[in-house]
Structures are given as C-alpha cells and as structure tokens.
Amino acid sequence: MSGCEARDAKKLVRSPSGLRMVPEHRSARSPFGLDECPRCMQCDTKFDFITRKHHCRRCGKCFCDKCCSKKVPLPRMCFVDPVRQCAECALISQKETEFYDKQLKVLMNGATFFVTLGTSDKSELMVCRLSNNQRYLVLDGDGHYEIEITQISTVQILTEGFTPGGGNTRAIGMILQYKVPGSEELTQMKFTASQDFSCNKKLSASWLAAMHKATKLLYESRDQ
C-alpha cells in the first residue's frame, strides 16, 4: 500500500440516508453540512408541518419534496445507496455514476506510457494508474511519482488521424500540468502511448479516453 492510500482508511456506517463509506480520520472528511433554511431554494415554498424540508445530498441546499424527489447513487460523496438529490444535481450524478461504472475501472487498472518530465528530451517507460482511493495518479517505472488529482491544473489529450469532418481520430498521449505541494509553479508531464504492441496501443487509447472523461467531470465539479 502506498503512502497516499494509507492516509485514507474508510469504514462503512449507516446513516439516515443509507449505508455510507466514511473516512476514519476526521481531517479527511468532507465539510458537508446543512444550514437552516425556511423556504425551498427552488420554488420558494415555505416549509411547515405539511411541507417538509429536504436537503440535496450533493449540494446541501434545502428543497421541498417535489423539487428534491430523485434518488440517485452518489459515489463521489461515498454514499453506497441511492440518495435524495435536486434535479440539477441528479443529472450530474447520473453522468458520474456512468463514469464510476465504466471509465473508473480502466483508470485504476492503468496503462503504459513513455513519460517526459518538463522540457527534458528523455522519456521513461512507466505504468500510470489511478490510486485505489481515487485521489492520485501513480506512475511507476525506474522512478515513482504520485500526483494529487486536485493539484492538476490542465489536461490536454493528444490525438492523431484528424480529418476535415473530425472523425477517425484516436488518443495517442496527453500533456498535463500540475502543482507540486509547497510550490506555486506548474510542472508539466507528457505521456506518449507505447507503440510496442497493438494491445498496448488499444489499452493506452482506452485509458486516455477515460482520463478525458475524468477531466471533464473534474472541471464540472470545480465550477459548482
């Protein structure tokens, strides 16, 4: 187990919303909470003994039952069972659920790339994968790197085979920029898919496609 994973031990607990995975260490827990709210934040209906107040498990805002009636899985916040969410959050959570069911497994299984750090003209063959706690990109070769997902600033997917109509392209690499803890400067890494075997090329392309999907979800969550 790597250092980044040892810090994130979790336990299964039962809450009013159902089973949920919760970090054992308080410092790693989400600051998710609920403030007092007298009216529905969607339709402005006043809460009383008849109109009950509910909160969206994703954004934490208060709604009436009509405006917060959907129950959708929320793995991002470690809920095991589907939980109540507002309509806007439910759409986003559905997209994330698709990602968790498909692309996440690809990222965690990893793929092989030639990795170039900064402006160096030398590259190293490394296996790149998402850590088990989904917080780090882990690169293993002769060297070892752990890049915290939240510190990634930009991700550019490199493709080839572009046609005027935009079809028949495939991912062949990516360039990402990230901040090293304790520094404000951006570090750049370039990933190029290995060309040794056709199976490696296909696996690398699938991993890059999953990374592209993950990046879009990451940017959407930052905009919320």
UniProtKB/TrEMBL annotation:
Q: Which InterPro entries match?
A: FYVE-type_Zinc_Finger, ZFYVE21_C, ZFYVE21_C_sf, Znf_FYVE, Znf_FYVE-rel, Znf_FYVE_PHD, Znf_RING/FYVE/PHD
Report keywords, A-Z: Metal-binding, Zinc, Zinc-finger
Question: CDD domains this protein is in?
Answer: FYVE_ZF21
What molecular functions are annotated in GO for this chain?
A: zinc ion binding
Q: Name one Pfam family in it.
A: FYVE
Keyword hit for Transmembrane helix: no
Q: Is Manganese among the key words of this record?
A: no
According to the entry, every stretch annotated as the FYVE-type domain falls at: 34-89
Question: PANTHER family in the record, alphabetically?
Answer: ARRESTIN DOMAIN-CONTAINING PROTEIN D (PTHR39490), ZINC FINGER FYVE DOMAIN-CONTAINING PROTEIN 21 (PTHR39490:SF8)
Q: Please give the name of this protein.
A: ZFY21 protein
